[in-house]
Amino acid sequence: MAWEFVEKKTPIDAWITEYHNKLITKLFGGNSLYGCYALAVTIFSLGIIRDHIYNEALMAQPTHPLLLNPLIKYASIPIFLTGNTLVLSSMWALGVTGTYLGDYFGILMDAPVTSFPFNVTDAPMYHGSTLSFLAAAIWKGKPAGILLTVFVAVMYKIARGYEDPFTGMIYAKREEKRQGGKKAL
After folding, report:
1. How far is the C-alpha of 71 from the C-alpha of 134, rounded, in Å?
2. Residue 110, annotated ligand binder?
3. Is 4 labeled as ligand-binding?
4. CB-based burial of residue 102 (10 Å sphere; 0-12 exposed, 13-18 middle, 19+ buried)?
5. Is 134 labelled as part of a ligand binding site?
6. pLDDT the model gives residue 93
7. Where along the chain is S-adenosyl-L-methionine bound (predicted)?
8. Alpha-carbon distance 21 to 143, whole Å?
9. Distance of CA 63 to CAs 35, 38, 125, 142, 143, Å?
10. How far is it, in rounded angstroms, from Cα 15 to Cα 106?
């Protein structure tokens, strides 16, 4: 769960250290783009480690006969494909800085993305990731993985409770500045 720890705990830290104090930007000589890219590499790398740990944990758990049924196992394929389509297409639509907290660095998008997958779900990365965890658990026949998926979904919901309003505030401030004739953040 390293990705969730970094991305979902760190936004609280990022709100304080990056958005307010520009700590990461300062570490990169005042270049917010480099700071955002460094955070992106960190989050992506920790996501790979998270996935490895998740898979290792699943392999150490018992299987359930019902989940070993071929119909149920193969039902995980469209779940996995849907999850990965949501994640990858949202990354494509948002780009690196939109995906990896660029708005905390003052790198804002011109307008909200409303095309696919955002016209299907308001949180395609979170929902897609959750579906991918679920698919892996079903494919491997591991009830513990299904319980971990529920835990991940709850953590994502909690994170969004903080992240969505904060991101909304960032864009609202930019809009206030635009309405006042001032430049964006």
Report:
1. 15
2. no
3. no
4. buried
5. no
6. 96
7. 81-83, 163-164
8. 44
9. 43, 39, 28, 5, 7
10. 11
